[in-house]
Amino acid sequence: MSQMLDRAPAAGQASPLRASATEALEPFSPVGLLPPAIALAAEDQGVKKAKQSRWVIFCLAILGGAFVALGGLFATVTISGAAGHLPYGVMRLLMGGAFSLGLMLVVIAGAQLFTSDALMVMAWASGRLKTGRMLQVWSIVWLGNFVGSLGVAALAFLSGQYAFGHGEVGSTALYLATAKSTLAPDRAFFLGILCNVLVCLAAWLSLAARSITDKILAIFFPIAAFVAAGFEHCVANMYFIPYGLFIKWWAPASFWTDIAAHDAAPPDIPIQQFLINLTTVTAGNWVGGALFVGAVYWLVFRKMEH
After folding, report:
1. For a disulfide at 98, which of 74, 162, 205, 209, Cβ 3.0-4.6 Å?
2. What CATH number has the domain bearing residue 301?
């Protein structure tokens, strides 16, 4: 934000954008940044992220994938055994609330996430970020997110966590993996768009926050909403589907005996469908974040500055 405040207004007059941002940053203001200032903050953040070395970006992306996977793990445990005991909507809301842990860790602890990094399109549109560099950053972050998510899935499997609750946790993990991997590609694409509109709005709102408490509240509701609504997040699926595959391939006979006791259906997680799902959800996430949030807010608040 210092870049914003240091820029001199043209012809000795204060720009409306600068005035709004300055007003939003006044001490003891009951509100955080106002929307025009959020737009500039998002743009500045995109430039700052892109200036990091490839190694730093990759490491932060691994953390981002791991944090989202931990949110997914928490969400899986939260709803295990709930089917048939809670209304569908309540169960999904609990799952969404637990899953919001992932983006909270990304934003507050510090990490990079492909889905929220779609907002880099704002810096690109302002001419502050070259096309090649933006595409390179997105590619590195996507790959790093995959490594981090896969790592947590592997650790969770090796820990035997899926056997908790007499196999209820593993049964839920298998159900989620099956449901996601067998989605029709067109549905996965549109669910991906809707998902990342909410994820990027959560990241957008967190930029307005003045405290950690503000950030947590800003993140919680959009993330809980996308999970409750059943939308699709590519980084989350990098955890959910591999975790289900690990259980399907390598879980011992004792686990299958446990889940047979509560009539769990045999898993159907075709790996080729996982790859199709990941591709289409990634594309949908990009459209939802880069075009429906980043590009729209750039046109509304930043185009007039260029």
Report:
1. 74
2. 1.20.1080.10
